[in-house]
Amino acid sequence: MKNKITIKDIAKLAGTSVSTVSRVINDSPSVSDKKRNHIKQIIADNNFQPNMLARGMVSNKTQTLAVVVSDINNPYFTDLISQIEVISRNAGYTLLLINTMTAGKMNKDNSTQLEINAFKNILERHVDGVLILGGEIDRESVADNYLTALNELNDQIPVVIIGQKIDGCNALFVERDQFRSAEIITQHLLALGNRRIAFIGGEPGIRITSQRLAAFKETMNIYSKVDEHLVILNDYYPQSGYDGMNSLLNSEEKLPDAVVAINDRVAWGVFRALHDHGLNSPDDIAVGSCDAFPNGEFMTPRITTVNQHNESLGKIALHFLFQLIDNKELNRTEETHLPELIIRESCGAKKRDEKND
Amino acid sequence: MKNKITIKDIAKLAGTSVSTVSRVINDSPSVSDKKRNHIKQIIADNNFQPNMLARGMVSNKTQTLAVVVSDINNPYFTDLISQIEVISRNAGYTLLLINTMTAGKMNKDNSTQLEINAFKNILERHVDGVLILGGEIDRESVADNYLTALNELNDQIPVVIIGQKIDGCNALFVERDQFRSAEIITQHLLALGNRRIAFIGGEPGIRITSQRLAAFKETMNIYSKVDEHLVILNDYYPQSGYDGMNSLLNSEEKLPDAVVAINDRVAWGVFRALHDHGLNSPDDIAVGSCDAFPNGEFMTPRITTVNQHNESLGKIALHFLFQLIDNKELNRTEETHLPELIIRESCGAKKRDEKND
DNA sequence: GTGTAAAAAGAAAGCGCTTAACAAAATAGA
DNA sequence: TCTATTTTGTTAAGCGCTTTCTTTTTACAC
User: Fold this and answer.
1) Is the pTM higher than 0.90?
2) A296 near A305, Cβ under 8 Å?
3) Domains of chain B: which residue ranges?
């Protein structure tokens, strides 16, 4: 490891003072063009990179954003992170990534503690802003010490949370209407004539699940009624859909006409279970879901789902975060993106249209 | 934003000197238990977090690792990152995440420049170690300025690269045998009696593609021969498999008996194309691939693929990186993980067994 | 030439911390 | 009791930079 070259070295090489070199680095005006060019040349020749730690100490800016994410393997978050990375990079920020879920499910206390630790870490590092995706915030009830830690963090550093607003939290929230999206897909399935509809997937105690499930139930109750045997929660992954559908298929109960899967990945498992039983979607059982994950059009059948326009979430959240960092007045426009039904094959709408032609 | 509390404030509150407080923070022995406890109490009461920038300046350690990744949306990398995050966090490091691909494909110059910029950024931030996943390193030929920048980075900070060794690069490489995995799946397909086999997916000019394609061709040439019309490269995503398979299905050429997809996601698109043409895998066309992505067992048909044990890559890479950071002698054991065939449904091996019973 | 204002350059303080060097106090041995 | 040693605490330097305050240089008018 070579010894790092410092601003002092550059000053010496250029035969000038440290402060003049600093002025050149920071594009301060009061340096003559001649000297400026000379110094720039020397900086380039020696491949000098100013030490950001030192700059950060005095300027109180680290050009760093912390991203706290509960599950980096979830493509919903990955999508978000990659958007966030690009926008941040273009704005001159680098991301500190903090994942708070180890592997699989964790017990609640443990994950709460992990997030609180993350906040401490963030505080130590003096980042300029914090973005929180999912995690504890998704829970229906948040521990008091978590809320305290989060508010303390937000006292020191601007925090923007992508998720549903929670009471008592002072951070800024950017949210999507999770109720509405489940309502849309349930209405669609009902409109196609299905009356006995199952709900599969989602983790109990997590807000997105309760909201979507509530939407499902309320909507169902208008035209039909919910058979509680047909509501099977678990988590958000294909295995969950597979197990859920299988238990329905293997039970004594009458089979449903249709299934609302909590998201496309769960639907994937549902399809697999159906196929294993020689059944077919949409002909035997229609399946609809939410979230429009990438590549849903390659599933067999192509999945009918609800696009929440999550692709704009990262952009909006950063927009706010940058405003907070710069102490600007918040301008909460351009936030509304309504969920939108994407009709593909798995609910059978197109097939029905063809028949009616 | 509250004013941050500093070590000075703690010293004043504790009626002692800054250095004594520092000793307590750093668990230095020469402080009496009484004073130590008193100071610890005050630190806790005031929720004091030492400023890591300041600590980093003097100690030359930032407890930060940079992770440079070309495409954070690729689940192969996401898997890797999430492992890396957990291990790093447990070792007291936080990750700086730098994604170098914006969206979709980029032209080569642009992405080279993005990575070089990333290296500069890393240098400025004085991280303790760097991990590189994919990116330029994957290309068959690397630009000179890229190699120079990479070597300069490695001169200052330990760099570990997960990928195939490139000439002239001084960083440490951790690799998997990409040739072997394609060889395995091709052999499997040949052993099942297929002779006319297509190769779909992968990006020309990227090393993993050339290596797997070379393995495919060499293996094929032993028992059969390669019809160049049946080799269709593009990229690594379902669309690529879909388009590739479709073009085969729509062409005048005789259809292949089997397909080697470069990875499971490409195979996914292949299945979709087959299905659109009323064809079925493995009955009409067998499909095998590499990489054993998560949830492959939920595909229809369940995919037969080759597990590269990439799950151990992150662990091994960090193991080395930590050794380099601590200036330890490198101990390159436990590195061998042979690729392994996972037989599921899509090549038809099990069906054949049943028939023979 | 002198005088003055503006521009350019430099000196020095300080960001929050660690740590070497030193000083003081406590303990031990003679 | 007195010195030698160990333990505990303090002072101050310095990490690499920014920035305020000062000084020097330059430009221009008279």
Assistant:
1) yes
2) yes
3) 7-50, 62-175, 178-308+340-356
